[in-house]
Amino acid sequence: MAIAVVSEAHGHVRWTFRLRVSSTARTALTNEWDRCRWVWNECVAETGRVIGIDWGVQETATTTGDGYDLPHAAHGRKAQAKPARYDRMMARRRPKKGQAGSRGYGNAKRLRVKAHKKVARQRRDTGRRWAKSVVPAHDALPVPAA
Fold first, then answer.
1. Which residues does the UniProt record annotate as the domain Probable transposase IS891/IS1136/IS1341 (predicted)?
2. Fewer CB atoms near the end CB (10 Å): N or C, the chain?
């Protein structure tokens, strides 16, 4: 929770604090939130807008509404040069069995992980942006079982 305080002589002061609640209070708040969310979902008026979604490989999502198809973004293909470079760096610096890795090996390993995390975040962001455009525009989203 952030609070802004205004002082005539000194301007604005802003500080943040975190309220810690007991596990019993947290459980009660979570249950109340779940109940309110259920009531909200039940009260939303249906307008009959339905879109079918099929998850695939060539296209991430194919829908019955042409404007909502989600093509494969190929984030991994665009970024594959960096992890490949870090793999070669690790191969040159690979320690012998039973020995600790060098600082260069550790750095290359960390950079490789960062590159993979970036691709994962890009994929997650693309999916969330797509979902934010599809969900508000439709009442029902039938998805076939895998």
1. 44-140
2. C
Domain that holds residue 58: 2-137
In a domain, 145, yes or no: no
Q: What burial class does residue 10 get, using C-beta atoms within 10 Å of its C-beta: 0-12 exposed, 13-18 middle, 19+ buried?
A: exposed
For residues 90 and 36, give the distance between their C-alpha atoms in angstroms, rounded to a whole number: 52
In this structure, which amino acid lies at residue 10? H
Closest Cα partner for 81 from 124, 125, 118?
118
Half-sphere exposure of 123 toward its Cβ, with a 13 Å CA cutoff? 15
For the stretch 2-56, pLDDT in tens is: 555 555 666 666 667 677 888 898 888 888 888 777 666 665 556 678 888 888 8
Asked if the structure places residue 6 within a domain, the reply is yes
CA atoms within 13 A on the CB side of 21: 8
Bridge partners (DSSP) listed for residue 61 = 55, 70
In total, how many domains does the chain have?
1
